Amino acid sequence: MSMSYAPAVPAATPSTGFTSRLKQSLADGPLIGTRIALTKNDHAYSCGDTDHNVYFLESGRLKTVTFSRSGKECLLRICCPGEMFGEQGLYGVRTESTIAMQDSVLRRMPYSRFLRVIKDEGLIGDLVAYLSLRLTEQQQAITDLTTVDSEQRLATILLNLADKLGNGDPESTRLEQRLTHEELARMVGTTRSRIGFFLKTFRGNGLIEVSQTSRLIVHRERLSAYLNERYN
Q: What is the mean pLDDT of the chain?
């Protein structure tokens, strides 16, 4: 089956409407919650915590990681301002940790109150759509880990990060969050040396650059074309 790797265009789905309304509620509505400031490397919560709360990121960047039985870390998600995270806390013990990648401010709200407000605001259907989208994203990530080679996964992840963290025109998009080779390796599911090799290849082919501040610049159209030509 042929797949296209053109840069994603945000769709007007119930899930995007839900996150927009959540962001507005954080500013002046009923979803205020407890305001918490984190410095870089602080944990919002940790694996093994019993934490029946849901969280909203107000500013900064967070990463969510989980661990294998051998202790190997896997980076699951990067959370940006306006996003909700920690949804799994409803079910008991945390199986992941969420860590500040830079100084950040978040809101924490007990699930019982969150669900009550969602009901009062008429957002139950939007919440279900949002959670369905998150589940679909995680299922796709699992599928890619087992069916797609490492270079292809890295290129796809860079395109997704450009959509989420990028700043600049659609062709040359700078990732505002600095990501180490180790962090990319945890997202891709490979070694740091392999990430270095792939990035060197991408740079040699003019698909990415590295700025003077060590930020990746993704040439999205070129990288998409490279994926289509190489893997279709």
A: 83
